[in-house]
Amino acid sequence: MRYQPNPHFMRLFELFTSAPGSIGQNLQRQLGEAHSDTPLLVATGTDLVLFPGGGRPPTSVDFRKGTRGFFEITAISHLGLAIPYLARLRELGHPTWENDARELIAQCRVVQEHNSVSYWRDEVAVDAWRGHEEKITDLVDYTCAVTADYLERALENPELLDFAYLRANLIEGDGPDAIPVSFNDMMAATFALSALDSLHRSLKWINEQPIDWARLMVLVVGTAGRPSAGLTWQSNNVCSLLHEASGRKLDPARLIIAPAAPAIDLEQLADNGYRARIEGLYRKFWYSCLSSVEMSRLLWPDYPAFEKRIDQAPVVDADTEVVNAMPVVRSVDDKRAIVTRLRYVMEDPGAQIATAGVQFVLDQLIANGNQPELVELPGFTGTTYPAASVRL
């Protein structure tokens, strides 16, 4: 017979915590009502939504997938992994790797035909990329040409898919048959370009909001890339973005990461009923996490307190073999740290992939008053991508 707790004990349990109108829920509800005018910022995997409080309507900004150029530049970035993935599929004997390679070759050629300065300047028209359109066009043409050419030759000579050869001549670019610009540089550049756009627009929107950072409640909800990613301060892009945008006034303890909280339907925010319900739900989430904090301070003020700290990022040098946190990039030429960040986000399931390109770009935008034209980009600034299609 399956165990069932005694109903009288269950009722005692529910009176404090889980029943409607329980002691714990009453306290959370009361705290929420007492702070209904406190501003609440909700961050999803793609949007920032500010509820100013007091029943006032929210404002929002889309900082990721709904933005111009995201899919285009990310599609190019993925080509740095596509050839190694096909090489691994071949090693494993997957029956469609050759067909997959031919389809990728064909699509690279199609993209080359549609890639132009006017497309990036007039159709994509990303403010943060203004002035870089010709170089982006060269980067895209180069990457597509190299990918297609390399795979065409690999279909004839599969030895090109040997990982030692592939690493030296395609990824690192230091082998005897190396391509002109390594795919490490290309991936660093595309990550940085994506970060430059999303960070620039997010900072612009944040700076336009009358945010009281000392009082602000922050809730990070839903998934951010992989289901296992972005669950800590150090691994979630939004945390560092908001902390730096606030001039480091945001208290880390007031930022709660709640992946189980529901996502926002932005289109429904125009409906007053939906808006009130979702805002109330998010406020309840925030206080359900923080009500115990208040109580612990009242109960045990003479004992050591918990303090959420932001760990210092490690520095990578020539002798570094292992990192347990995302390393800091010190300059646009700090290639070892830049590539280590690429490896880190691939290897740690808790890391957001996009984090690889964020830190160095964010630091520069903050230091330069959010002026993207003053930002140096790894793999892009000072790097020349051949303008004509390349044959190896």
Automatic annotation (TrEMBL):
Residues 67-196 form the DUF5624 domain. InterPro entries: DUF5624. It holds the Pfam family DUF5624. It comes from the Bacteria. This is DUF5624 domain-containing protein.
